[in-house]
Structures are given as structure tokens and as C-alpha cells.
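Shift notes (night). Ran IclR family transcriptional regulator NdgR while the centrifuge was going.
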Amino acid sequence: MDNSSGVGVLDKAVLVLNALEAGPASLAQLVQATGLARPTAHRLAVALEHHRIVSRDTQGRFVLGPRLSELSTAAGEDRLLAVAAPVLMQLRDLTGESAQLYRRQGDERVCVAAAERASGLRDTVPVGSALPMAAGSAAQILLAWEEPDRLHRGLRGAKFTAATLASVRRRGWAHSVGEREQGVASVSAPIRGSGGKVIAAVSVSGPIERLTRAPGRLHAVPVMAAAERITEAMRRTS
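Came back to this:
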């Protein structure tokens, strides 16, 4: 099927964006994924970077840029945020802890939605916060189902191991205790998009004094249920 719009430069730019949907890519990887000539791929990627549609990660690889998220929010078409908002509030009320939604962006995970505990000691993660992919239960979720090469790259410098991620895949949830921040514990579960791909992580987090050093025993079931509700809602509205 011919997907050409008749506007060559636009079609080539879309090839670049489609390639980056799978994750960070070097120039050589962009060339391989798009079939474009190296100078063309570089020129388009740099032009898209100028407009913040493409960005770079800490290793200099091309990634999807913040402008895409801004446009999506402005258009009111971000289905994930729309369906997740009431579920996060329900999860907060059920567990008594702050609930968050994370997406991966390059070598970071970004908090894209949150429902904060109204009072008392809490773990506040402002919406828009960019946290490392090297620590925390949400990072484990966002990495655990990656392709083997990306998974192993993500483990470099991480505070968790390949064995940890194997356990996450087996049970379907992750927890961390003082991994991202001293005194804070969390539990996370995967949200899946089309084809079963993990597209986000839903989490609850709070002080270890309340969540204990085995937070999964307290909150794995409601967190997994919340993730499944969001996943099913995404399927219904797709």
C-alpha cells in the first residue's frame, strides 16, 4: 500500500518519527530504519530537533521531543491521560497513597499524571518531573519488557538487576524500597497498548513507614487492577 502523501519532505520526516516511536536511535540506526540516505536522515532529524519535535538523550541519540506531548495535550487527544485520571484518583483513595503515571522518554521516565494524597506525609512527584530509568519500581516496569539489547543497555548503572526484571515479568508488578529516594517505597504495574506493548507504568508511592519494606504485599493487587482498568479502557477507545 502506498503511504505517500505526495509531499516528499513530509513523508520522509514521518519516516523519521515512525522510527523514533520504537525508542532512541543513533543516526546510523535512523538510516537503517528509514532507508533514507545518511545526509537526508541527518538533515531531517536536525530540522525536527530545531522545532522540538525531536530531541536528544544523554548519549546523543535522537528521541521523540517534548513538542509532540505539548501538541497532544493541547488538542485534547491524549487518551491515556483521559482514561487514567479517574483511575489514579480511585487508586489513591483505595491505598491512601499518592498515585502516579509514568511514560518513558529516552533515558528518563516522566510523570505525566498524578493523584496526590491530600494530607500527611506523602511522596510528591509533580507532573512533568523527569526521573532516571536507573532506579524505582516504575523504571523497572518500563524496562522489564524491552527488547533484549535495550534491556541490557538499560541495566548499565541501574540499582536493580536482570534477575529483578525477570521477577517483575513473572509476577506482573514491581516494587522498590529506598531505591530512587531514601525513605520512599513504591509499587508499579504495566499499562499496555496495541500489541501488548508496555506504554506506561502506574504507581503508588509513599514513606517506608507506611508502605513497609515489602510494599508489594500491601498494594500489588490494587496497583495491578488499576493498570488493567487503564489498559482495557485504552482498548475500548482505540
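The chain has two domains: 8-71, 78-237. The radius of gyration is 19 Å.
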